[in-house]
Design brief:
The mean pLDDT is 95. Strands 2, 4, 5, 6, 9, 10 and 11 form a seven-stranded mixed sheet that branches. This protein has a four-stranded antiparallel sheet with strand order 1-3-8-7. The chain has one helix and eleven strands; from the N terminus they run βββαββββββββ. The longest helix is centred in the first third of the chain and has 4 residues. The protein has 127 residues and is mainly beta. A hairpin with a 6-residue loop joins β4 and β5. The relative contact order is 0.31.
Length: 127
Amino acid sequence: QVQLVESGGGSVQAGGSLRLSCAASGYTVYTVSSYCMGWFRQAPGKEREVLARLGLSGNTWYTDSVKGRFAISRDNAKNTLYLQMNNLKPEDTAMYYCAANAYCPSLGSKYTSWAYWGQGTQVTVSS
């Protein structure tokens, strides 16, 4: 029903920036505006964690570790979700995923609460 494809990952030095994209497709013409959208990351040996999410009304939420550095946004016309990442740190190294759900799961919910996922894009930050 909903397909998500991430892109924009890569290797950068600490302090650098990346913009991740999540191209959405499905039965709705503007999927990113019809679903709650989120960005997650998972480092080796760690649990998948939610970084940011964007509700249907445009409200945003960020986890403390990325607040002020990352920004979630969407382009409805392009049906694309973005994650602008600035001042990257080595601890940001992880596989990054975008996700979608018909509603925004409650904060603290497991990642399995989200119905649709992209394949992930690797972000590596070196010092």
